[in-house]
TrEMBL record:
<protein>
    <recommendedName>
        <fullName>MATH domain-containing protein</fullName>
    </recommendedName>
</protein>
<dbReference type="InterPro" id="IPR050804">
    <property type="entry name" value="MCC"/>
</dbReference>
<feature type="domain" description="MATH">
    <location>
        <begin position="3"/>
        <end position="120"/>
    </location>
</feature>
<dbReference type="InterPro" id="IPR002083">
    <property type="entry name" value="MATH/TRAF_dom"/>
</dbReference>
<dbReference type="Pfam" id="PF22486">
    <property type="entry name" value="MATH_2"/>
</dbReference>
<keyword id="KW-0175">Coiled coil</keyword>
<dbReference type="InterPro" id="IPR008974">
    <property type="entry name" value="TRAF-like"/>
</dbReference>
Length: 130
């Protein structure tokens, strides 16, 4: 098992003009990860929400049948799931409301930089099926 706390910084957050944005990649265990952000919420939620997902960034380079079971904690929310070639993104469509995200006293955005703490516990990895 691998437990890691990663702090991800997204600089110039207010300058993001697309519906979504990928963070820079970071390494936990043997995998490269990135965050997928929807500053105004993804298609499953109404405006006024911030959506946040964790992606296995190097999944195209992995064997076809790879699987990884992980628990992800992000700001008091937790999800456990299998990541795989067909499902390499997991997270929260309604992670936090936009007003809380932009509330300076809550500390999510400082000096136009979004700060996200991601805790990942990799519990099991299947590299090859027989």
């Amino acid at each position: 098992m691998t437990l890691t706390l990663e702090i991800v910084f997204v600089h110039n957050f207010s300058a993001i003009t697309k519906n979504y944005h990928f963070s820079d990649e970071f390494i936990i265990g043997e995998r490269k990860w990135s965050l997928l952000l929807y500053p105004k919420g993804d298609a499953r939620v109404k405006r006024g929400s911030f959506s946040l997902y964790l992606k296995v960034a190097d999944s195209p380079k992995l064997p076809l049948n790879w699987k990884l079971y992980a628990t992800i904690k992000q700001h008091e929310k937790e999800v456990s799931s299998w990541f795989s070639a067909s499902m390499n993104i997991w997270g929260f469509s309604n992670f936090i409301c936009s007003s809380d995200l932009n509330d300076k006293s809550k500390g999510f955005i400082m000096y136009n930089t979004l700060i996200v703490e991601v805790e990942i516990l990799v519990m099991s990895v299947i590299k090859k099926f027989t």
